[in-house]
Automatic annotation (TrEMBL):
<keyword id="KW-0479">Metal-binding</keyword>
<feature type="binding site">
    <location>
        <begin position="192"/>
        <end position="193"/>
    </location>
    <ligand>
        <name>substrate</name>
    </ligand>
</feature>
<protein>
    <recommendedName>
        <fullName>Ribulose-phosphate 3-epimerase</fullName>
        <ecNumber>5.1.3.1</ecNumber>
    </recommendedName>
</protein>
<keyword id="KW-0170">Cobalt</keyword>
<dbReference type="InterPro" id="IPR013785">
    <property type="entry name" value="Aldolase_TIM"/>
</dbReference>
<comment type="similarity">
    <text>Belongs to the ribulose-phosphate 3-epimerase family.</text>
</comment>
<dbReference type="GO" id="GO:0006098">
    <property type="term" value="P:pentose-phosphate shunt"/>
</dbReference>
<dbReference type="GO" id="GO:0004750">
    <property type="term" value="F:D-ribulose-phosphate 3-epimerase activity"/>
</dbReference>
<feature type="binding site">
    <location>
        <position position="28"/>
    </location>
    <ligand>
        <name>a divalent metal cation</name>
    </ligand>
</feature>
<feature type="active site" description="Proton donor">
    <location>
        <position position="170"/>
    </location>
</feature>
<dbReference type="GO" id="GO:0005737">
    <property type="term" value="C:cytoplasm"/>
</dbReference>
<feature type="binding site">
    <location>
        <position position="30"/>
    </location>
    <ligand>
        <name>a divalent metal cation</name>
    </ligand>
</feature>
<feature type="binding site">
    <location>
        <begin position="137"/>
        <end position="140"/>
    </location>
    <ligand>
        <name>substrate</name>
    </ligand>
</feature>
<feature type="active site" description="Proton acceptor">
    <location>
        <position position="30"/>
    </location>
</feature>
<keyword id="KW-0413">Isomerase</keyword>
<feature type="binding site">
    <location>
        <position position="172"/>
    </location>
    <ligand>
        <name>substrate</name>
    </ligand>
</feature>
<dbReference type="GO" id="GO:0019323">
    <property type="term" value="P:pentose catabolic process"/>
</dbReference>
Length: 214
């Protein structure tokens, strides 16, 4: 699955930019609060408008403090999937259950320095796990290849538990790095600058998908 990140789109033309990647599986929406990460993007009202403007389901990536409080509001605003950071969540199990109970897919993100092993027992509560391949906060950063062993170990854990969890990578994913991520076991790929920085974003999505499947 290829999920273009609208962080690299033109925020004054969000509806058009969302439609430019129709055919993508999900639209990745980065919510930043200037506290959990040193950047500020958008909030509930923008997500609400965006969900009405596109048929592509929204994959929300909450880079915010107190996701326990905010996640339900993003689901009401139209999010089909909600990713919270384990470093920010007060009660990750309760939060994952609440997200699912409200009808969205529950997903948990790990910053580059956060290991997966302490959270092994949480995996059955999740529909997706996000392994950050850059420090969260900004688009256009270089892919951290030292994350590849973590992707591989996480995929092994998921298989060992017999789970059907999606494994998402986010940060520096491009035609140059996507094959290594896929080979390590990722199956959902977020791409911001590699899609919206291209002359033809829809073609960039198709090209990435082809590379991931190769
Ligand atoms: C970064 C965000 C990413 C960002 C990725 O903190 O979570 O989703 O948009 O951008 P690229 O693909 O340009 O690294
Ligand atoms: Zn993201």
């Amino acid at each position: 699955m290829i999920n273009p990140s609208i962080l690299s789109a033109d925020f004054a033309r969000l509806a058009e930019e969302a439609r430019a990647v129709e055919g993508a599986d999900w639209l990745h929406v980065d919510v930043m609060d200037n506290h959990f990460v040193p950047n500020l993007t958008l909030g509930v009202p923008v997500v609400e408008s965006l969900s009405k403007a596109t048929d592509t389901p929204l994959d929300l990536h909450l880079m915010i403090e107190d996701p326990d409080r905010w996640a339900p509001q993003y689901i009401e605003a139209g999010a089909g999937s909600v990713t919270f950071h384990v470093e920010a969540a007060a009660a990750p199990v309760r939060l994952a259950r609440e997200i699912r109970a409200k009808g969205a897919r529950a997903s948990m993100a790990l910053k580059p320095a956060t290991p997966i092993e302490p959270y092994e027992d949480l995996l059955p509560e999740l529909d997706m796990l996000l392994i950050m391949t850059v420090e969260p906060g900004f688009g256009g950063q270089a892919f951290l290849d030292i994350m590849l062993p973590k992707i591989r170990r996480t995929r092994e854990l998921i298989s060992r538990h017999g789970l059907q969890l999606a494994l998402q990578v986010d940060g520096g994913v491009s035609a140059a790095t996507i094959e290594r991520c896929a080979e390590a076991g990722a199956d959902v790929f977020v791409a911001g600058s590699a899609v919206y920085g291209a002359d033809d974003p829809a073609k960039a999505v198709r090209d990435l998908r082809e590379k991931a499947e190769a």
